[in-house]
């Protein structure tokens, strides 16, 4: 009987408002499935004096997402990534498939949940936001690379702590929403970058610890931002005021007598509120990191980074033609202190301005914009013409189904 229900569900898969196919076996057992695609056309400016500018057409995102539950207590999430390698500007060749997220959640109560697997770490809001919900489609820290087609920046990301995979890591977290979301807590233990797998940091087994607290003033009429994942905007569907702080720490050991505990902390605010047909959005954030591995530093000093951003969007919540227009902007700044091959204080700033057009929310979106990047003092010793200011132009199309 159960097999028959499953086959019937496959044949009669329906599309729910979130634009995902749904497979339902019974009231407590179901799953959703969707495909996300983002296609870009870009004019990439000269980041170095010895390279040319580029015109690139790329698949910047191609993922398959599944989410559902076995019963009301056991839930799951999965994201398979088939995107090309987009680590550097101008690199868009095919890449092998990988797993971005693989999560099992034990949902005992809104106040207490257990999350295990590989997933977005409980740190800055940007680390918890999927790129399919970016108001600036080129994302965070755009333009950094290994110097092939851009300026050569340190591999260290000043906007995220040391993890195994960008914004994600493998581990287990305990989290929940207190008083219907007025307060959200997250406490996690992860592999981190400085476990026994990095030969440059010895073979000792060190775990990373992360925590994040959020405050949602629902008493002022705002809706609690209760989920694990975040979005840059809720496109006028709900008013949100979310305030978050987080901390991350992990011991490292280079196996040569030098060791320390890398620490990262952050604070961020996200506000969005609808006024008639206009929906303004504003976000602020700061990320600091210190006591990083000495083998990254100058003369065995322990380097550190600072980063902050200001971003926002103004959405006109009425159809003009086939969609709703919005104007988005972001300014971000980061600095590297005591890193190898840098000037005393390597700095990078970036200003982005995009016109977004939401045909069906995030499910059908077009973006047109520009990024102005100023990599002051970043790895000048790598190339005498490295660290040039450059400007990138982007057209992005996104669908989710």
Question: Could you walk me through the main structural features you see in this protein, from its secondary elements to its overall organization?
Answer:
It is built from 1 helix and 18 strands. The chain has one helix at residues 2-11; strands spanning 14-15, 21-26, 29-44, 54-69, 74-81, 98-109, 112-120, 168-178, 183-190, 208-215, 240-253, 259-272, 278-290, 304-316, 324-337, 345-358, 364-374, 390-400. It has a 16-stranded antiparallel β-barrel with strand order 3-4-5-6-7-8-9-10-11-12-13-14-15-16-17-18. The longest helix has 10 residues, at 2-11. Residues 1-17 have low confidence and may be disordered.
Which descriptors would you attach to this protein?
single chain; 401 residues; mainly beta; 1 helix; disordered N terminus
Would you spell out the secondary-structure blueprint of this structure?
Elements: H1 2-11, E1 14-15, E2 21-26, E3 29-44, E4 54-69, E5 74-81, E6 98-109, E7 112-120, E8 168-178, E9 183-190, E10 208-215, E11 240-253, E12 259-272, E13 278-290, E14 304-316, E15 324-337, E16 345-358, E17 364-374, E18 390-400
Antiparallel strand pairs: 1-2, 2-3, 3-4, 3-18, 4-5, 5-6, 6-7, 7-8, 8-9, 9-10, 10-11, 11-12, 12-13, 13-14, 14-15, 15-16, 16-17, 17-18
């Amino acid at each position: 009987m159960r097999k028959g229900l499953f086959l019937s569900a496959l044949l009669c898969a329906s599309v729910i408002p979130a634009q995902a196919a749904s497979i339902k076996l019974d009231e407590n057992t179901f799953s959703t499935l969707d495909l996300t695609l983002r296609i870009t056309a870009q004019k990439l400016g000269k980041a170095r004096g010895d390279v040319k500018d580029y015109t690139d057409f790329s698949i910047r995102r191609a993922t398959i997402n599944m989410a559902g539950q076995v019963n009301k207590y056991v839930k799951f999430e999965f994201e398979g990534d088939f995107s090309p390698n987009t680590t550097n500007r101008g690199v868009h060749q095919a890449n092998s498939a990988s797993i971005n997220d693989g999560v099992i959640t034990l949902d005992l109560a809104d106040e207490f949940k257990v999350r295990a697997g590989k997933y977005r770490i409980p740190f800055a809001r940007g680390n918890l936001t999927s790129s399919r919900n970016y108001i600036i489609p080129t994302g965070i820290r755009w333009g950094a690379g290994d110097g092939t087609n851009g300026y050569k920046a340190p591999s260290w990301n000043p906007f995220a702590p040391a993890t195994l995979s960008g914004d994600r890591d493998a581990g287990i977290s305990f989290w929940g929403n207190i008083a219907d979301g007025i307060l959200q807590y997250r406490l996690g233990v992860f592999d981190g970058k400085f476990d026994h797998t990095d030969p440059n940091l010895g073979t000792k087994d060190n775990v990373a610890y992360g925590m994040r607290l959020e405050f949602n003033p629902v008493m002022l009429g705002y809706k609690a931002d209760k989920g694990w994942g975040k979005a840059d905007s809720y496109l006028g569907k709900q008013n949100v005021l979310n305030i978050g702080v987080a901390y991350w720490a992990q011991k490292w050991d280079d196996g040569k007598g030098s060791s320390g505990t890398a620490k990262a902390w952050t604070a961020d605010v996200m506000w969005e509120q609808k006024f008639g047909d206009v929906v303004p959005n504003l976000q602020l954030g700061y990320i600091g990191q210190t006591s990083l591995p000495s083998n990254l530093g100058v003369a065995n000093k322990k380097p550190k980074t600072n980063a902050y951003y200001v971003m926002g969007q103004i959405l006109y919540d009425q159809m003009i033609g086939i969609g709703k227009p919005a104007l988005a902007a972001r300014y971000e700044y980061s600095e590297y202190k005591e890193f190898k091959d840098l000037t005393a204080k390597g700095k990078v700033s970036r200003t982005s301005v995009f016109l977004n057009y939401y045909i069906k929310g995030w499910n059908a979106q077009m973006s047109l914009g520009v990024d102005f990047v100023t990599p002051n003092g970043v790895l000048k010793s790598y190339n005498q013409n490295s660290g040039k200011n450059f400007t990138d132009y982007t057209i992005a199309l996104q669908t989710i189904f």
